[in-house]
Design goal:
This protein is an all-alpha fold. Helix content is 64%, strand content 0%.
């Protein structure tokens, strides 16, 4: 993972509803924990996405269990994944570089 992955993930996620399943106007403690001590919605979103990817690599069942346990919308995460991948392809094409990295 590099800074380009983080930027593409956050940009892609901003096009959809947030993946956190919330019942009030506030995030649940389990969702706020994704941000650590940063109090950043973007960090929470990115960290939740990264942990979801790890669960997804194991199996679809692990992915579903993770989303249920953490109250995350799996469909939104999947759409974010696809949009992020498309952004990475677009940036690689636009900048004609192998790995998109911001400095």
């Amino acid at each position: 993972m590099n800074i380009g992955d983080a930027v593409c993930t956050i940009a892609a996620a901003s096009t959809f509803s947030e993946p956190f399943v919330i019942e009030t106007k506030y995030l649940r403690p389990m969702h706020r924990n994704f941000a650590g001590n940063t109090f950043s919605d973007h960090v929470a979103l990115f960290m939740a996405f990264q942990q979801w990817i790890k669960a997804r690599w194991h199996s679809e069942e692990a992915e579903q269990e993770f989303c249920e346990l953490k109250a995350l919308n799996m469909q939104i995460l999947r759409m974010t994944f696809e949009a992020r991948n498309q952004l990475k392809v677009d940036f690689k094409y636009l900048f004609e570089i192998q790995d998109f990295v911001l400095s």
